[in-house]
Amino acid sequence: MNTNKLTVAIILTLSTAIFLHHVSTSHFRSPHYQNGKIRNFGGEYLIEPTRYITPQSEAEIISVVRNVSMKQGSHRVRVIGTGHSWSPLVVCRDVLISLDDYKQVLDIDFEKKVVVAQAGIKLKELNSILWENGLALSNLGTVAEQSLAGAISTSTHGTGAKYASMSTQMISFTLVVANGTVIEVSREQHPEIFRSASVGMGMFGIISTITLQCEQAFYIHKTEAIEPLDFVLYNLGTSMSKYDYYKFWVIPYTNSAKTFSMVRTPNTQVTVKTSLDEKLKIVGLNIAYYLWKFSSLSMEITKVVNKVISIVDKPDIGIYKSYEALTSEPLPTYFGKTYWTINTM
Question: Which of 7, 144, 199, 337 could serve as 327's disulfide partner, Cβ 3.0–4.6 Å?
């Protein structure tokens, strides 16, 4: 083998190894501040704040807010969570606060099943701590990487007609307002602020600590399947009544949808998946990511790719811890979201 052929062989081998490693690694992109810049989860928005601050205590949060307020409007303060929003929610040139280092569970009342946590804790961390203590949240959104306050403030909703959005699980919270004052807020104390700030997009102040109503840990029987969209829509009302949690993802340019049907179960025999199963799932997600990225070149390619996805996606049935069933593995950033209201009457 001559030198040129050897070089090509080495390059191809290395490229293949890098690609296989890349597609076998989860690529959820949390905001990462670097060189004065930060991007949101989807990569659509570039944020260039004047200052980026990561407080570790409520006293530090108060200090930052008071220092900015004393400068008579030269800057404002915004808070960023995991940056999962597809909207320019925190695109600014102001002082940007991340609560990533403000993430402790402060108190657990086992009798009342009430938990107090700092606003920056990620849901995946909170879920694990709650489960270890025999507790769980009643409903969750798909993305467990969201921060607690971020999920609540952006109306993260979970799914199913029987359980409301995450904000409804909040009993009370402390709010740091524009002058640095801390307000205790609940349905009884400052009810107008409670209703506004609980899904307030961070515009009413900085939520600091949150008191949550939890419940006893529970298990869910979950079925994922590809079904005809016409069938899903026709039976939507029945499905919403039948299952404790139910959602579906429409696959564009096909007559298919991926359905997630979930019921609470007394069965505690959790479905065990091998590391190979998990690795193959991540590989599949990342290959889908590259296919969708490629398909963005042409609508016709998108149609073909989505058709293939709707055919090869296999059903998944199992029993899981509640938070594992309600949330998904970190998804690659290949999609945006739209929400539709469907009349089931």
Answer: 144
